[in-house]
Amino acid sequence: MFAFSEENKERIPQVLAKYPTKQSALLPLLTMVQRQEGYVQPEAMVEIGKILELSPGYVQSVASFYTMYHMTPTGKYIILFCINISCQLNGADELLNHTAQKLNIKVGETTQDKKFTLHREECLAACSNAPMMRINDDYYEDLTKEKIDQILDSLD
Predict the structure, then answer these.
(1) Per UniProt, where does [2Fe-2S] cluster bind (predicted)?
(2) Cβ within 8 Å of residue 100, ≥6 positions away
(3) Which of 47, 92, 97, 147 could be 87's S-S partner, Cβ–Cβ 3.0 to 4.6 Å?
(4) Shared-domain flag, residues 31 and 87
(5) What's the average model confidence in pLDDT over 53-69?
């Protein structure tokens, strides 16, 4: 059973007020759910549909279109590794494999302690400092194996 937190219940009218139609607030509400739960479960899509007067199927079609929304539980830290051409040319494949080996998981998996989830991302729009990855909302650029180890070890 999904329910918005009390804090988010209070924020929803403020979010809806920012848009000309309440249906336009779909992405912000999906983001709100993901930040609250770590992923967007079917029950949340039903709740969002009720608020926005959209079918759950429509909400799911939008949520599944964007790679930034996760439909299954994730780790505390979601690592998105950019694999676009600039990152590829600067060693992203090797660094992604290094990260997976360090975490002892495959791409798309979550560590057993639920700390990290590792994904590929087509583009994170930071080509000038490739290779790069995003962990939750933070960008890490000009990556090396040593820098990745330091970043991952610093996260509690």
Answers:
(1) 82, 87, 123, 127
(2) 106, 107, 118
(3) 92
(4) no
(5) 94
